[in-house]
Amino acid sequence: MAKVLFLELDQENEWAVASIGPAFIAAYLRQHGHEVSLLRVPLKMSAAQVAGRIRAEGVDVLGVSLTSRQWLRARELMPAVRRMVDVPVIAGGLHPTFASDVVLDTPGIDCVCLGEGEQAMLTFVEAVERQELPPRGIQNIRVRGDPMPTLRPPFEPIDALPFMARDMLDERFGVVHIATQRGCPYPCTYCAARQFSDLYQGSYSSFGRRRSHENVLDELSHLRRHGELNYIIFLDDTFTIHHAWVKAFCESYAERFHIPFSIHARAETVNENLISQMSNAGCRHIVYGVESGSERVRRDILDRRVSNERLRTVFRWTHEAGILATANYMIGIPGETKEDLERTLALHEELDPDDFGYFVFYPYPGTRLFHLCKERGYLPDNYYDLPANHRTTILTLPNLSAEDIEAYYRGFTEVMIRHRLKKLPSKADSMSRKAIIDQIERFAAQG
Ligand code: B12
Prior knowledge:
Bound molecules: cobalamin
Number of strands: 14
Largest sheet: 6 strands, mixed
CATH topology of the largest domain: pyruvate-formate lyase- activating enzyme
Number of domains: 2
């Protein structure tokens, strides 16, 4: 039996829920007899404190899950931890998968896991137990100085995975997170999730898999039996891919649960009927990626073939079904102009979403837009040294300056302030108005 500790590295934001990859891996390792825990590392926690916990727990393997946003914190923290305590460290997740060279150049990170991690991590932990250090020749795992590893097939059947280890997530008030699928079939050029599927292409027919209805519903029943279950957030990139799955799921769900839930969808993948069925089953919130109000940008740059007309209709259907709609937008996409951004602001007015998010574009490693930015010289040479936040651009773009992007980001913040103030009762005092403005400004400053 090995003791495994996962670190969750907070950056500027403390995300309400920790990474879900480790929660899946922890459940799998525990099923195989290992002990797993999580240490959330807030900004104020020092390397010495992290090392102290590792020593106190007698940790055998340290795991770190990294998005690009968490990367700079890992690069600073892991070498410092290594100077104090010598435990094998493995990094996994989106960033190590697509930037393995630079992650492996970091002292204190010994290996990276590319792609899916459950079986790879188990094999790794078992090799460490046998004192094979560094463990070589494990599928999906790359050791410093070694070439790219081969990949094991995606885990099948996906229903055989144990339910996520909930103690690895910061869930509160009975709000739970569920993933029903792995992989996304859409070709969006900006999305890192999409690249996971491409990584496996060539070796295996498909990375895409979806759990059975029964398996998902059993997990929810299990959660209800063992704690509070008040709201369900389906984390799937696109919940509405297969209508037959969604319809049958909604029917079975409504028979067993009366609990509101939220999903992520693409406007291309829903129709009025589906929206109404989801609403009847309890769907109360849909997050749509709108990204841009310019059809040219969506079609030619982002590979999103959906018309503005369709978006308007889908938002109307959503409102009419009594479901809250959130729209997400990007600012500063390569090839975008000020006119395109004006179209985004104009479309936003028309869609009239209940809430919205606005993010300065960041080119995630591995994505098609990342490669385009590199080829065209939009990326600075030191891009891995720069923060992956969504409030300032790291790019030098031909049609938009960094100042333009900043001005539009500011513009969206003002739209957000107006949007929130409009919702306040007319009697609201100036203190409440100020509190709202302060909160939005704080959020905008964190990106
Ligand atoms: C749910 C989700 C969230 C949740 C939870 C985050 C999380 N890290 O799990 C919340 C809401 C907090 C969130 C926030 C954000 N997210 Co998000 N999110 C997702 C989403 C939709 C699903 C993640 C998921 O379900 N994963 C399922 C699990 C099973 O897969 P996994 O995490 O990849 O883990 C597997 C492997 O990677 C590997 N693995 C992972 N970690 C480790 C560690 C070790 C040691 C090993 C061995 C293996 C291993 O094994 C796991 C199991 O097989 C993804 C899209 C996607 N499909 O990945 C985006 C995604 C991860 N998010 C993304 C982004 C950009 C963000 C935000 C910056 C959004 C924003 N604008 O503010 C923030 C930043 C969060 C942060 N901490 O950095 C990007 C990340 C791109 C990148 N290269 O970093 C993604 C890929 C979407 C995209 N646009 O491309 N997000």
